[in-house]
Write a structure and sequence with these properties.
Largest sheet: 7 strands, mixed
Bound molecules: adenosine-5'-triphosphate
Low-confidence stretches: none
Radius of gyration: 28 Å
Structural class: alpha+beta
Number of domains: 4
Shape: elongated
Number of helices: 23
Strand order of the largest sheet: 3-4-5-2-1-8-9
Helix content: 55-70%
Length: 444
């Protein structure tokens, strides 16, 4: 296939858009290229969603022009001479100025200067990501592959462009693993040696929390995070999350069962989307102490929401699992109380942990409990605080206790109507709250 035909692999409307943009660049006297992962994926025959363009000239000015003409949303990152556009149909496009990068210190973001397309390709991570397709009319579809990208694609090889690559940017260590595992490629020998060398130093420690987080979560969001984790462990890279984090047999078992748990969950509750990277991270840290988990949350600068989920893994998931398997937990409301404050990710983790134990009866009971719980969590009481107030209840914590009792009874199906709720509320009030609260305490 000629490279001209390569662009025909894009959907018709994308193809036409690129032709129009090529013509627009020509009018401005600039050269325009499609570049990086998009070209790699086109050559591999994979579907690509977002487009990466680079301009030999002023990329940001060109991006403004395009945004204006196509009514696309625009965000400009002046420092990196890049812009991101979002077209009305949802297409995302990055437009950058071709540039060279210099690294003052390893691990720190580079300073950038405009440069030729060849130099721009040379600053990229791997040869397979350093191929460009020109878009100007007359040159439309011309392939630029100065560093053997196509050769390495054919040989299914990940290769850095120069020996200092991992030093310049240690995120490339993780990127190499990402592409290696996703594409089922191999690291070229010298690249493998350079990677091992870079990984044996403390270069990665110099990465900021958000940059490390980005790489780790991207890796755990790949199609097969199980292979990814095994590889991270083999290369002793997990120590950069925490020096005491290790891929023990138990952790490995949980991680390996997670895909099955996710398939079950998604089949049952398609609307309850799971944060996949985070649930894998929870599995990875499922045997770590609270202190180690807290340190990893800090190191990765996880958001409040991500941190809440991660904290609800580990020992907590084990406790929940044990309680759910307890024969004394018979009422749906008991299951509800156990699970109600937990993120869905913990439920998936609990399921994976149980699946790994291969106890068929307990596993089917757990699945039934989860299905019932997901239904029950939507149940609400008809009565509210103000109804109790009009029944003469003085302000105080009893409101929560009585409403909780009503909800439990609804969930357990012992009451079904508003009238039932009123009757039960009256009974509870009449019985005298002090004895009721006392009994509650002794029951729990
Ligand atoms: P994915 O398919 O995961 O999106 P991608 O190759 O498109 O992978 P991006 O992170 O979107 O990756 O980056 C686009 C391109 O920018 C890459 O193909 C590569 O050429 C270049 N690039 C990205 N990150 C780096 C880096 N850390 N060092 C050098 N070049 C990079």
């Amino acid at each position: 296939m000629t490279s001209r035909n390569l662009l025909n692999r894009l959907p018709q409307e994308r193809h036409s858009l690129l032709r129009e943009l090529g013509a627009l660049a020509d009018e401005r006297g600039a050269s325009l290229y499609l570049v990086g992962g998009v070209v790699r994926d086109l050559l591999l025959g994979h579907v690509t969603l977002d487009l990466d363009l680079t301009v030999e000239g002023d990329g940001v000015a060109f991006a403004r022009l395009v945004a204006d003409r196509y009514r696309a949303g625009l965000a400009v990152f002046e420092r990196f001479a890049t812009a991101r556009l979002v077209f009305p149909d949802g297409l995302k496009m990055d437009i950058a100025t071709t540039r060279r990068e210099s690294y003052a210190l390893p691990g720190i973001l580079p300073t950038v200067q405009p440069a030729s397309i060849e130099e721009d390709l040379y600053r990229r991570d791997f040869t397979i990501n350093a191929i460009a397709l020109q878009l100007n009319p007359g040159q439309f579809g011309r392939l630029l592959d100065a560093y053997g990208g196509q050769r390495d694609l054919r040989a299914r090889t990940i290769r850095v462009l120069h020996a200092g690559s991992f030093q310049d940017d240690p995120t490339r260590i993780f990127r190499a693993i990402r592409f290696e595992q996703r594409l089922k490629f191999r690291l070229e020998r010298n690249t493998s040696r350079l990677l091992a060398q870079a990984a044996s130093t403390n270069l990665i420690q110099q990465l900021s929390g958000p940059r490390l987080q980005n790489e780790i979560l991207l890796l755990l969001g790949e199609r097969d995070p199980v292979r990814v984790m095994a590889r991270l462990s083999q290369l002793t890279l997990l120590r950069f999350l925490h020096r005491r984090l290790s891929y023990t047999t138990n952790v490995k078992r949980v991680v390996t069962t997670l895909p099955k748990a996710l398939v079950w969950w998604t089949g049952r509750f398609p609307d309850r989307e799971i944060d996949k990277p985070i649930v894998y991270f929870m599995a990875l840290s499922s045997e770590s102490s609270q202190a180690v988990v807290a340190a990893m949350i800090r190191r990765l600068a996880l958001s409040r929401e991500q941190a809440r989920k991660v904290r609800a893994g580990g020992p907590l998931a084990d406790r929940v699992l044990k309680r759910l398997a307890d024969e004394r937990v018979v009422h749906p409301s008991q299951v509800y109380r156990l699970l109600v404050d937990l993120p869905d990710e913990t439920l998936v983790l609990v399921l994976a942990k149980q699946m790994r134990l291969q106890q068929a009866a307990i596993l089917s009971r757990l699945k039934r409990q989860l299905v019932a719980y997901m239904k029950n969590r939507t149940i609400k009481t008809a009565l509210m605080g103000r109804d109790l107030q009009s029944m003469g209840l003085q302000p105080g914590p009893q409101y929560g206790t009585i409403l909780g009792k009503l909800l439990d009874a609804r969930i357990d199906g012992t009451i079904t109507t508003e009238a039932d709720e009123r009757a039960l509320a009256c009974k509870l009030l009449k019985k005298g709250l002090s004895s009721f609260v006392k009994r509650e305490a002794s029951e729990s």
